[in-house]
């Protein structure tokens, strides 16, 4: 009995030592929440945007919160964000350097060409030329399925004589995985969901296992290089398969949703739809089958603005980095704060700068020309507190922490929207339909996803 009490007391003392933390004067405001160890994890996970807005009102543009035993310093000052993720906070990555090489220059052009070919083939297979009746489908399902399959074929390739790697099979399993991803990451899966997640992950690991192993597999040079890098680092086969699943999500989990939001905003904003169609029409008039202009560098300022505005409203990733050594953070207003080694720093650009009313007037409203000047040129001058901002949206990250596949993703979305709007009659099933609400549990996981779908109907346009 005495031994039990002794061990219990020591366990309580150890817990107190491990979890007890006080704020020093040089550190950001500390908010540990009322629940021991868990802190603010539940509220953070339910709706990160609402939670961080509440914390900002309480503490200002920088604060540290406890969530599931971790301490996260959140920075919401758009003037100071670029200084928060330097080399003192994160370590350089060989994988990122390798990936950057494969998504630039002639390598990017080759990927664009392959992606274009797969998009055209998938869309033609979906709606044969002799089909005269309308096809009804959810816009989210339509966009996600086509872009996922095209992206999978472009980057992960077709394994010869291997039906297991059929893109439709991979997509169906991936949808199940993606639907459970936020709960999986937060550790809030129910018993049956855990079993489903385990089965789906096992299946996807099997489907992805051969990808990139052989030069004749049809996989992209990027994937082959990635597999070689893992092997050189001594990563075992099981861990390689898990890494491939994460790469599958990173490369295919955001483009489809991004295209859905853009097409949805265009269909529910006739003026925006007409402006983008008009710009595409001028391009199509100059195209021939031998010179598809949309596949190369092309000036599309209206489309670019419409896409950037859509991303401003729906791209909501956390940009997080580990503090690898104690460092003083210098804020733009002259304040200085000490960052502790082992903590994490988090930017949430969705709240700031993307939804800041001082930076973007009527931030909740979709304005396709928000990023255009009156003369039609790209608008890059946005201000906060009278000072020009370096970053006024950050859907792709920024600086050294930016997405290396950004241009490939933009080119893919533009090609997809171009093909759909120029080759198909596309309309809402209900002309008065509005955009669905976002799934608040997806804040922090890249592109937001909708609660429900937007029903459309489409058919291939008749040509003279």
Automatic annotation (TrEMBL):
Compartment(s) where it occurs, according to its Swiss-Prot or TrEMBL record: Endoplasmic reticulum membrane
Predominant location category: endoplasmic reticulum
Signal sequence, renumbered to the chain: 1-24
Coiled-coil region list: none
SUPFAM superfamilies from the UniProt entry: Cytochrome P450 (SSF48264)
Record EC number: 4.2.1.152, 5.3.99.4
Keywords carried by this UniProt record: Endoplasmic reticulum, Fatty acid biosynthesis, Fatty acid metabolism, Heme, Iron, Isomerase, Lipid biosynthesis, Lipid metabolism, Lyase, Membrane, Metal-binding, Prostaglandin biosynthesis, Prostaglandin metabolism, Signal, Transmembrane, Transmembrane helix
Catalytic activity as recorded in UniProt: prostaglandin H2 = prostaglandin I2; a hydroperoxyeicosatetraenoate = an oxoeicosatetraenoate + H2O
Keyword S-adenosyl-L-methionine set for record: no
Cofactor or coenzyme needed: heme
Binding site for substrate: 254, 344
GO molecular function terms attached to this record: heme binding; hydroperoxy icosatetraenoate dehydratase activity; iron ion binding; monooxygenase activity; oxidoreductase activity, acting on paired donors, with incorporation or reduction of molecular oxygen; prostaglandin-I synthase activity
Gene Ontology BP, a term: prostaglandin biosynthetic process
Entry membrane topology: Single-pass membrane protein
Family the entry assigns: Belongs to the cytochrome P450 family.
Name of this chain's protein: Prostacyclin synthase
